[in-house]
Amino acid sequence: MALKFQKNPIFTPIKKTKTGMTKVNLIDNGPLVVVGEHTITHPDGSQEVKPSRASYCRCEKSANMPFCDGAHKG
Ligand code: FES
């Protein structure tokens, strides 16, 4: 029996910025946006890899910490 490779349909490919570097953008009165692959280390020590982009709350109003849910606008 031959091995068969199948792509995972829900796999999100890693996106790189044009320079290949991870970038951090501070949005005025909004979140910190990280563009590029990065790893989050949570307070309990668990780690989560974000392959492309994530917005992190800076206002502490998000119901989905540490991520921005748009609550800073209200
Ligand atoms: S920065 Fe967007 S909810 Fe806090």
3D architecture notes:
With 74 residues, this protein is an all-beta fold. It has a domain at 24-73. The protein contains no helices and five strands. Strands 1-2-5 form a three-stranded antiparallel sheet, with no helix packed on it. A two-stranded antiparallel ribbon has the order 3-4. The radius of gyration is 16 Å and the shape is extended. Bound molecules: FE2/S2 (inorganic) cluster. FE2/S2 (inorganic) cluster (FES) binds at residues 30-31, 57-59, 61-62, 68-72. FE2/S2 (inorganic) cluster is lined by residues 30-31, 57-59, 61-62, 68-72.
Task: Tell me the number of helical segments per DSSP (H or I, 4 or more residues long).
Answer: 0
**What is the gyration radius calculated from CA atoms?**
16 Å
The largest sheet is:
3 strands, antiparallel
Spatial order of the strands in the main sheet?
1-2-5
Question: What string gives the helices and strands in order?
Answer: EEEEE
Q: Which small-molecule species are bound to the chains here?
A: FE2/S2 (inorganic) cluster
Distance between the termini: 59 Å
Helical content band: under 10%
Could you say which structural class the secondary elements and strand pairing correspond to?
Answer: mainly beta
- Poorly predicted segments: none
Strand content: 25-35%
| 3D shape | extended
Mean pLDDT: 85
How many individual β-strands?
A: 5
Topology:
Layout: E1 23-26, E2 32-35, E3 38-41, E4 47-50, E5 53-56
Antiparallel strand pairs: 1-2, 2-5, 3-4
The site of FE2/S2 (inorganic) cluster has 12 residues, from loops.
In short:
With 74 residues, the protein is mainly β. It contains no helices and 5 strands.
